[in-house]
Amino acid sequence: MYKDTNCGEPRESAVGSQITVAGWVHRRRDHGNLIFIDLRDRSGLLQIVFNPEYSQTAHDLAGSLRSEWVVQITGKVVRRLPGAENPDLPTGAVELSATDLVVLNRALTPPFEIADDIEVDENTRLKYRFIDLRRPRMQRALKLRHEVTHIMWDFLTAKGFTQVETPILIKSTPEGARDYVVPSRIHPGEFYALPQSPQQLKQLLMVSGLERYFQIARCFRDEDLRADRQPEHTQLDFEMSFVHQDDVMAIVEELYSRIVHETVPDGTISAPFVRLTYAESMDRFGTDKPDLRFGMELSTVTEIAARSDARVFQSVASSGGSIRGFIAPGCGNYGRRQTDELTEFAKQSGAQGLVFIALDESAESIEKLEDDHIKSPLKKFLSVEIVRELATKMGAGPGDLMLIVAGANRLVNTVLSNLRNEMARRLEFVDEKHFAFAWIYDFPLFDWDEDLKKWEPAHHVFSSPKPEHMQYLDTDPGKVLANLFDLVCNGSEMGSGSIRIHDRDLQARMFSIIGYTEDQISERFGQLLTAFSYGAPPHGGMGLGLDRLVAILVGEQAIREVIAFPKTQSAVDPLFEAPSPITDQQLEELHVRVVMPRS
Ligand code: ASP
After folding, report:
1. What is the pLDDT of residues 266-303, one digit of tens each?
2. Is position 275 within any domain?
């Protein structure tokens, strides 16, 4: 070994001992005769002092050290002089008085400093990812990611799950996104697809009698990269036989509680996880990914607002839209600049506008509200009685601000749920160390695709309808709810799962409801239908995003921050410069010809 001690280890108890450390020169400072360096390895920093009295040679060589050079140093651990201790550093009470220095490698000046919270553009970070990953924050994220998967392996193994690797080169298994495809050299004109998830494979493993499967699986989806998506992501994929929805949820609840407790010891969690039906979540929060760390729930005031003289309210109500809103507590004194900012925010989410009604805190109560207590751009169209009714319905008191949006139902929900999160951020209602997990269940089985004018599976085509809704499958598919559930945490979707269809005929019927032809069914799903004819047990499972989970645990906004080698927003890897053209010879071997798009 090049070292017998890690840089982050020595404490006062080590004073007097002779040690050898190795790592990267983090910083060098020359103080007259003495040269100091902070030496860094994965465990932390150690201050080294080169004193010519102890070794002239080491001191001379130390003068030439530069940032990020790789060195090995031997010396004696000494107590720092009084006043020179660094309480911010775990090793801050001591330093290493060097007697030997070996330069193991030199380094070019790095393109950016190895420190957290530096301003570097993303492309540069990703091009030099091997240096970026030296930053403590990135090291911490990668280690925590490892810990999380370690806990998953441990926990699931103890619960009788078997880890199975499923192929990366498979056949297209449509799950809603576009496939990445790989041309076959041996079979000209034929292609493999990379799995969007191991969905069909894990269901086949249930038919095989495995009963409990899991995999930390890579999933590939060729989507237009919306915010914070990656072409490949990792998920904890699992499947269980002979289970109901509650059994699947219970396993995840136990596992995720353990992950939070073990990886974020000062983190808190709401147990048991909250359960909301999809309908309830939409009604109370305007989204199926509610952040439950704060209140500010939505209220529907269509009927009350429509009785006011405000035209916009009347016309939205008569055209079947909705008027909804929530209370920003204590914001009744917001000035023009603040309300303008919120209006701009609402418009960016698609709203036509945002209606404010501010209630002055001098009002004694809502019952005693007077005209003077009310401030609103729509004030002349709102009687005091209507404002009182609105306030009562929405739960507003003196000093509060009512935020109201009118429009098509879906839009109103989107705007208000975004605005609710924004208000929570502004009001600092968000506790970064609280993990508010919730189950959203009873999703509709289908979504109506307005462009294609047909029903699409809301999740994927393998989820089962609730038995009591089977009667609407052909007549009114929009009414059918599914045994389909999502796990959400702090406003993000953590994963989806369902109890699957295990009956061959029902699965075939589902395919045809969403418009697959007989040929498409047998071509894409023949293997599954055949397997279902040979004794498929009832089964269900989930796919839970690992990247998002780790991001939430370490407090990062973007999943790129917890993936070792991610792609940019335009699906490019600046380090390897992928994607890239391949040689003509490779193309020929693959029987592929490139036709560039006309620009
Ligand atoms: N395969 C699904 C997905 O990746 C998850 C599941 O239903 O298990 O979203």
Report:
1. 999 988 999 999 999 999 999 999 999 999 999 999 99
2. no
Question: pLDDT-based confidence at 55, cuts 50/70/90?
Answer: very high
Q: Which of 237, 238, 252, 546 to mutate to test the pocket of ligand 1 (most atoms within 8 A of CB)?
A: 237
CA-nearest of 419, 386, 392 to 404 is 419
- Structural domain containing residue 365: 294-430
Q: Both 327 and 414 in a single domain?
A: yes
**Pair 256, 319 in one domain:** no
> What percent of the residues of the chain are helix, what percent strand, and what percent coil, each to the nearest 5?
30, 25, 40
CB-ligand 1 contact for 321 (6 Å cutoff): no
Cis-peptide into 272, omega within 30 deg = yes
What are the helix and strand counts (H, E) for the chain? 16, 24
Q: Which residues of 390-426 are buried (b: 16+ CB within 10 A; e: fewer)?
A: bbebbbbbbbbbbbbbbbeeebbbbbbbbbbbebbee
Contact 234 CB / ligand 1 (< 6 Å): no
**Residue located nearest, by CA, to atom 8 of ligand 1:** 542
Q: Record the pTM.
A: 0.94
- For residue 172, what are the contacts with CB-CB under 8 A and spacing of at least 6? 179, 181, 193, 524
pLDDT digits (tens, 9 = 90+) for 3-30: 999 999 999 999 999 999 999 999 999 9
Contacts of 382 (CB under 8 A, 6+ apart): 308, 309, 310, 357, 374, 376, 390
- In-domain check, residue 114: no
Asked whether residue 262 falls in the same domain as residue 141, the answer is: yes
Q: Which atom of ligand 1 is nearest to the CA of 498?
A: 7
The residue among 428, 438, 430, 413 whose CA lies nearest residue 326 is 413
Q: For the domain that residue 414 is a member of, what is the CATH number?
A: 3.30.1360.30
Give me the number of domains the chain comprises.
4
Residues in CB range of 37: below 8 A, 6 or more apart: 25, 26, 27, 28, 29, 47, 48, 50, 62, 65
